[in-house]
């Protein structure tokens, strides 16, 4: 047996050499894969291997994938540009006719009219204003959805946001003899002031619309570790549980809305605005006990992707 003792060191050396060779081969393969990915990220990927190896097959598949992805990206960008142009055209082309319609309806209502004619002129003006609001809301929604406009959140105090929403909805609340209050709050959150003000106003306006005369709408806020929660509480009729998941959809109107004016876009826009800032919105309600809409604003800036 001693004559074969030399075999074991030779086998061990061969095994070690084979292991080193495999490791070097693996490292070389990983370097080539990293180089392929670097070229792909830089947009200059091209096939370099043209043999029957697995690495060559991988390059071929990656090349096909990247070409397809590039074409899809170009198509998506082209479609986005087309939508952007369409939205711009709609906004531009409808602005003047609607403004003229509202102007002449207003002038007509101030003329020497009979009672019936005054009612008709008032209805014409109201419908013109509704059409103007609809076009503006649709343009805003489309711009948000297509990324034409983006929110720019920054850390801001929350209390001015609450007061501004109360001031905007103050006249409508006063006309219905609704008590509208924004409670004091000391705290910050990360949000885009202009867009978030619109989201909160849409929720407050919705609360005022559905709260009966003599009711109350309260705007308050509370800080948590990661979010600041803004609550809009009303004493309205409430929302059935089966409808609560639908009210944030575009153009959805509650079955019990009756003759309440609305287009079904306010809550949808509020959800879209908050989502793009890393926040969200929810509602807690039951029929006959009013609603509490909660808008969650992140405490730190969220980078939307």
Automatic annotation (TrEMBL):
Question: Keyword annotations for this protein?
Answer: Kinase, Membrane, Phosphoprotein, Transferase, Transmembrane, Transmembrane helix, Two-component regulatory system
What are the Histidine kinase domain coordinates in residue numbering? Answer: 89-301
Q: Which CDD domains match?
A: HATPase (cd00075), HisKA (cd00082)
Name the catalysed reactions: ATP + protein L-histidine = ADP + protein N-phospho-L-histidine
State its Enzyme Commission number(s): 2.7.13.3
User: Does Phosphoprotein count among this protein's keywords?
Assistant: yes
Keyword Phosphoprotein included in the entry's annotation: yes
GO MF term set: phosphorelay sensor kinase activity
The regions listed as transmembrane in this protein's record are 6-26
Q: What is this protein called?
A: histidine kinase
């Amino acid at each position: 047996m001693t004559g074969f003792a030399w075999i074991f060191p030779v086998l061990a050396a061969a095994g070690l050499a084979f292991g080193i060779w495999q490791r070097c081969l693996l490292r070389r393969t990983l370097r080539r894969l990293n180089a392929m990915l670097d070229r792909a990220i830089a947009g200059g990927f091209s096939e370099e291997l043209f043999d029957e190896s697995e690495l060559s097959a991988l390059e071929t598949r990656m090349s096909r994938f990247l070409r397809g992805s590039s074409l899809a990206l170009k198509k998506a960008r082209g479609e986005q540009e087309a939508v952007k142009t369409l939205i711009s055209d709609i906004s531009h082309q409808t602005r003047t006719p609607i403004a003229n319609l509202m102007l002449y309806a207003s002038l007509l209502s101030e003329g020497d009219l009979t009672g019936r004619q005054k009612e008709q002129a008032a209805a014409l003006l109201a419908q013109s204003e509704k059409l103007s609001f609809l076009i503006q809301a649709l343009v805003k929604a489309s711009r948000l959805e297509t990324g034409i406009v983006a929110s720019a959140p920054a850390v801001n105090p929350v209390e001015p946001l609450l007061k501004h929403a109360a001031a905007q909805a103050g006249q409508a609340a006063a006309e219905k003899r609704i008590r509208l209050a924004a409670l004091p709050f000391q705290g910050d959150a990360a949000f885009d002031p202009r867009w978030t003000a619109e989201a909160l106003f849409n929720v407050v306006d919705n609360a005022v619309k559905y709260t009966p005369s003599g009711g109350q709408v309260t705007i308050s806020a509370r800080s948590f570790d990661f979010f600041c929660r803004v609550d809009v509480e009303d004493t309205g009729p409430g929302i059935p549980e089966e409808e609560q998941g639908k009210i944030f959809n575009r153009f959805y109107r509650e079955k019990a809305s009756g003759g309440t004016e609305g287009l079904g876009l306010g809550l949808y826009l509020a959800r879209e605005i908050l989502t793009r800032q890393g926040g969200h919105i929810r509602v807690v309600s039951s029929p006959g006990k009013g609603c509490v809409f909660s808008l969650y604003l992140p405490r730190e800036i969220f980078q939307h992707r």
